[in-house]
Amino acid sequence: MFNPHRKQNRLTALASIVPLALILIALTFRAKAEVTIDFWNPDTGEAVLKVLHEDIQGFEKEHPGIKVNLVNIPWSDIFTKWQTGIQSGNVPDASIASAAFGATLNSEGVLEPMDDVIKKMGGESAFAPSAKSFVEMCKQNGGFYDLPYVHNCVVLWYKKDLLQKAGLPVPQTWDELLATAKALTKEGVYGILMTSSKSYVTQHTFYSLMLSNGADIVDRETGQKVLFDSPATVETLKYYKELSQYSPPGAGGYDRPEAQAAMSTGKIAMFIYGSWLGGALTEAGPEVLAQFGAAAVPHNKGQGSFMGNLVLVTFKAAKHKAEATMFLEYLMKNENYVRFLLTDPASYGPVTAAAIQDPAYSNSSQVKAVQGVIAAVQAQLPNAWVYGMPSPHAGELEGLNVIADVVGRVVLENVSPDRAAKDGAAKIQEIISKK
Amino acid sequence: MKPKTVQQIVFVLGLLVVTAGVTSPFCWLLFCSLKPKAQLFTGLALPTNLTLENYIALFAHTEVVRFLSNSTTVAVVVTTVTVFIATLGAYSLVFFRYSGRELIGRFILLTYMFPGVVIIVPSYNIMSFLHLTNNLLGVMLVELVLTIPFAVWMLRGFFMEIPRELEEAAIIDGCSKMQALRHVLLPLALPGIVAVAVFAFIFSWNEYLFPLVLINDENVKTLPLGVAGFMGHLYVEWGPLLASAVVSTIPILILFTFLQRFLIKGIMAGAVKG
Amino acid sequence: MSFAPAQNPSGPPRRIGNFTGLKENTLGYLLITPTLSVLALLIFIPLLSVAWDSLHNKTFLSTSYSFIGLDNYRALFASPGTWAIVMRSLLWTAFSVVLQVIVGLVMALFLNRVFIGRAFFRGLFLLPWVIPVVVVAVIWKWILNDLYGVAGDVLMHLVPPWAHLAWFSDPMLALPTLIAINVWRGSPFTMVILLAGLQTVPHDQLEAARIDGANNVQQFIHVTLPHLRKILLIVLLVFALFNFNNFDLIYLTTQGGPLDRTMTLPVKTYEVAFKGMEIGASSALAMMMLCLLVILSFVYFHFLRITSDSR
């Protein structure tokens, strides 16, 4: 049975698919420059994006033929994306990371050593003494696998007018902090914001309190011994729970967006959080930032706080390693580096001696505006640490929010702090003993 | 009062309650997006003025225009391809007889119930293998698997409403099956096709999980992913975030105002046919 | 079917015969092929891959892995958390579906009466369903926040003890809150389907009932509901599956928190894969979810057959 229409039908069908396919291909095909490097950035604030774009433009002008593609992936997702990228062969050429994530990536053997870049900067002596512990974290067996970029600390943020009105000084010890929080919680105002969500916010606050009580997660020499279930940690958990009652009822579930919004309402007197909150407060308006002061995290049996940090890394499997390295060197050139620092001096503390001594940095209006915050950060840097370091699995600890989970169980579920700490320690042991 | 009047009053009240329940969250969102940044968190207190500053910040400082265009591209392509493939498929299921037809039909409907979450890892791997991660084409491909089963089912319902005799008459008059489809059935099933198109568009526009898994690059993000991304920013700017939520709704609202008739008819027809 | 001989003098030779000829079948198969190939590429092959992965200890953290048989499944069944999540998924599904159907039916009953502007309201009521889930999440997170959400201010005037509740953070309140939001979002869709059903209820039967003295409620129970039975059952099944598979709403509001109190199977599957980096374990979870769905569907159809047989 001959169907004269069949061929026609098929041809028409084909004919309509072909242009469709061409359109699809054209839509998604991007014209590539000679060399395009992918640069991943998790620090997705407006100011950072602006300065990175400036850096990229400057770099592309200096190096025609190289294009930099800025890919922004938030902290909550980037660890996963690195891993899935490594598995499928789609690694970025260079990336901003943190020391903890860098340690994990390095333990997987995927990072390119940074020694050459550092040599070009003038070797290790290019780094300031204040950055010593940070620099040590970025090394393994004497060689650098991370390039230290900027660092900061968790501090105690406080609303100046609320403390003044109550006639209270800035608390310096745990007892003072508890008393101040209690005194300020009244009439719709809360003394202190303590989150118990499974998020970085909880981890940063809790770890800082741990350090200020002389506790830690693993030992600092080898990173192999789990110290999490020490009496000092249990004490910190109890203290955290006590402080939480002076927090808004929903704080148990707050993540970063909610925490920042909460601080902007002006109804919360204190918050133990990174100095980078300064950037968020500035976003709400410089008058908002002016209402707050920053001080060292109140201490108990120890001293310390969490060191926030950014490092730069390149991947062994990157398609354009040489060009990526050139971009990183460009970022570290003093005038570019200082420009980056000045976008948010409360968050971006310098690591190079050159920048610290550079009057363009120290005499700038941006630095002067947050002098108090920077002072609080610098006071704590000698005692600041990153959780899980130097274990090569520190990144997983960070990514899995193990510590936040422990806090949540104690505060929200009323699990006994001993029990929670023990369970947490078991989980941490499991993670760091892997492979 | 007469019982009928009471009834009417209850009816109107009930209608108002439902309307309020449905629309007040949006109205509040819209209202808050027009508040000045510094007065966002003042609760019920009225702001000193209404302003577009959040929208200006949104459009000037974020990639929201790119998100809009990406979402539009993906939705248009997915809709077109879905309608094309689903029309052929529904035609096959209704106007042909071949062994396994019933089974295939039921099977296609079942795949509609398939949880997308189950295949997130393999679809990432497949797209990765095809070098289509971080690429709108990969997203389009995956979304097809989510729109086509329902589209086939819906169009099948519409096709089943069309009397067989019309198609048979056309064939007797010299049309091939494909010509019968084009000249006789499509015009009659046009409402159904529009319904399927609207459904596919809405579906694709709102899709979040697969773009989340497949896309990293800000330049390639679709709108829901972009808006969710604003919540993950280091400093969350709530003003522009609220504005972006409003902006995400507008294209759908516009599409919907004109075409809701078709969508509703489509769902209703598909439902009754079962 | 007409067997009349061809009357067309011009043109190519005509086809004679019935429609079930071989060539027709081929075209039929051909036309369904694009649908089937999309499904094959993106459902079957991935499904096989998931089944395969569930028998290995693959992770995103390394490229080497080995066959471990049913170990992933054993770990899954042994963990008490798994059963909690399954129960929660079922609770989430059951409450969401039932409430969505009830609210949808109420909304449909309103729209079933003829009044001016009915079409406008019909479209308006569909609003919560047509917007992206991320917008739903942003709106409700904004409204229900205990510190700066307007719900607190409104409740302060209406029900003061509720004004400071932590809707999303309280382990007891989080799931009900999400279910309520889910009902707000999904009812419009059930409404449309049930409206279709309502409009097929024969008017003469309603008239007859009214003449017999039945009031509105009695009319509803004795005439309307029986007619809606078939559609109600379909809606229950379809929406049970939709809600069971729901990922977006929960992930975008609470990510399964606080303390996994809103964790359902889909969200957990994603979390284990992309936060826990465990491909093997996540695949086992996914397969388990699928099996549950199949079992639920079978139970449902069996129940359907029993009740329809008993009529």
Plain-language structure description:
With 435 residues, chain A is of the alpha/beta class. In chain A, 52% of the residues lie in helices and 13% in strands. In chain A, helix 2 (46-62) links the parallel strand 1 (35-41) and strand 2. The radius of gyration of chain A is 25 Å and the shape is globular. Chain B is mainly α. Chain B folds into two domains: 3-33; 54-273, Orthogonal Bundle (MetI-like fold). Chain B is built from eleven helices and no strands. Chain B starts with a helix and ends with a helix. The mean pLDDT of chain B is 87. With 311 residues, chain C is an all-alpha fold. Chain C has a domain at 264-305. Helix content of chain C is 69%, strand content 0%. Chain C has helices at residues 22-53, 71-78, 80-112, 118-125, 127-130, 133-144, 150-158, 174-198, 203-211, 216-244, 248-253, 265-274, 279-309. The two termini of chain C are 37 Å apart. Mean pLDDT of chain C is 85; it is low at 1-20.
Secondary structure blueprint with pairings:
The complex is a heterotrimer of chains A (435), B (274) and C (311).
Chain A: H1 4-28, E1 35-41, H2 46-62, E2 66-72, H3 75-88, E3 94-97, H4 99-107, H5 115-121, H6 132-137, E4 139-140, E5 143-144, E6 147-151, E7 154-159, H7 160-165, H8 174-184, E8 190-193, H9 200-212, H10 231-244, H11 256-264, E9 268-274, H12 277-284, H13 286-290, E10 292-295, E11 305-306, E12 309-314, H14 321-332, H15 334-343, H16 353-357, H17 359-362, H18 365-369, H19 371-380, E13 384-385, H20 394-400, H21 402-413, H22 417-432
Parallel strand pairs in A: 1-2, 1-3, 8-9, 11-13
Antiparallel strand pairs in A: 3-12, 4-5, 6-12, 7-9, 7-10
Helix pairs in contact in A: 2-15, 4-20, 21-22
Chain B: H1 3-33, H2 53-61, H3 64-95, H4 101-112, H5 120-129, H6 136-161, H7 164-172, H8 177-206, H9 209-214, H10 223-232, H11 238-273
Helix pairs in contact in B: 1-11, 2-11, 3-6, 3-8, 3-10, 4-6, 6-8, 6-11, 7-8, 8-11, 10-11
Chain C: H1 22-53, H2 71-78, H3 80-112, H4 118-125, H5 127-130, H6 133-144, H7 150-158, H8 174-198, H9 203-211, H10 216-244, H11 248-253, H12 265-274, H13 279-309
Helix pairs in contact in C: 1-13, 3-8, 3-10, 8-10, 9-10, 10-13, 12-13
